[in-house]
Amino acid sequence: MVLMVDTTAKHIGKAISEELLRSGKNAAKFELIDTAGMHISHCAGCNYCWLKTPGVCAIQDDYEPILRKINEADQVWLISDTHFGFVSWQTKNIIDRIMPLITMYLKFKDGQMRHVMRYNHQPDIGIIYTGDGDQAYLERWCQRTALNLGSRSLGAFSETNRKEAVSCML
Amino acid sequence: MHVVIINGSPRVQKYSNTEQIIAAFAKGLSEKGITFEAYAISNRKTWDTIRDAYIKNDEILIALPLYVECVPGLLLEFLETLPKKDEHTRLSFLLQSGFAEGCQLRCGEEFLAKLPEYLGVRYGGCLVKGDNFCIRFWDEKRQAQVTKPYQAMGKLFAEGDGFLREEAKKFTGPEYFPLPIRLMMGLIFKTFVKKMFQKTAASWGCRVPLDEKVYRKI
Lengths: 170, 218
Description:
The complex is a heterodimer of chains A (170) and B (218). Chain A has 170 residues and is an alpha/beta fold. Chain A is built from 6 helices and 9 strands. In chain A, helix 1 (13-22) links the parallel strand 1 (2-6) and strand 2. Chain A starts with a strand and ends with a helix. Chain B has 2 domains: 2-170, Rossmann fold, CATH 3.40.50.360; 177-218, no CATH class. Chain B has a 5-stranded parallel β-sheet with strand order 2-1-3-4-5, sandwiched between helices. In chain B, helix 4 (106-119) links the parallel strand 4 (90-96) and strand 5 (122-129). The chains are: A alpha/beta (170), B alpha/beta (218). The interface between A and B is large, with 50 and 54 residues.
């Protein structure tokens, strides 16, 4: 399943979904979550999801259904506005709060320290962004983020290249 | 020099590792006769005061924990509320993380190195160091001990070159651990460290395994 989490002010996820549907019978199974109107807090770094209630976030807001979908998805596309060349704080909050999918335990992988994942299945991560994003930096960040999950980066795509992004969803 | 220090951690100050690091760093500043004022963004109610201090002062240091390879979401939100200033203001960073090796913080460091230009200000460098996850679990004495190296960095900062000097760059420690160290640490992770985490969890009232699967298997 392809999951798109859209935090953009212009709700561009809808047009991307339509693009995906237009791709015909090969269109991937997908779900679009538009976070407009949802209450999603930032991660407060309490460590409860690692040490007190493993796998469960202490913050009770509208995020939990998103976390469940992220856990089930094969691909997660962060659809984000950009500031300082980077994803918006709304999108960063979505990613900061995936910690319940990760355990406290540590290991070395490819020469670097990593946390042991809680579940066996990990989604690949991609970015579709509006505005003046720092393409090279977004790609680097996406790769590093995927590395932490033990998955792959699908790349960062400007909204104007969304057809290319959609082709990666098929 | 008068430094405005902003704790960019979203965690409440009482349990903030970054707060302990700032305390040690500020001690170093004081020893060199440098004054400072310190704030923390974890309490939104203080954001207007912090922004005012950012506007009125020209030596700013943001200390922050690495959250998923970059700035925590809450700090990103705060940064978006800052007005543009000019090159008379210098913005430096102190980036810390749980993971121990330098390579883990470089992606975050790149964002911070580019940030001052977006805000119109001058970059004063970024002090980078990991292996700070456990500070909150130690008692006061041990906390002072493990954060002590930051005191020397406070003294270095007081000399006026931000974190642009070689000593600040060396502070990071190893970029990667050599294979024998990794093998040894890997073994310690599976034994001693695992037990330590389980013990901490138990003291927090946790009654299930730390790798408990909450969602059904897929």
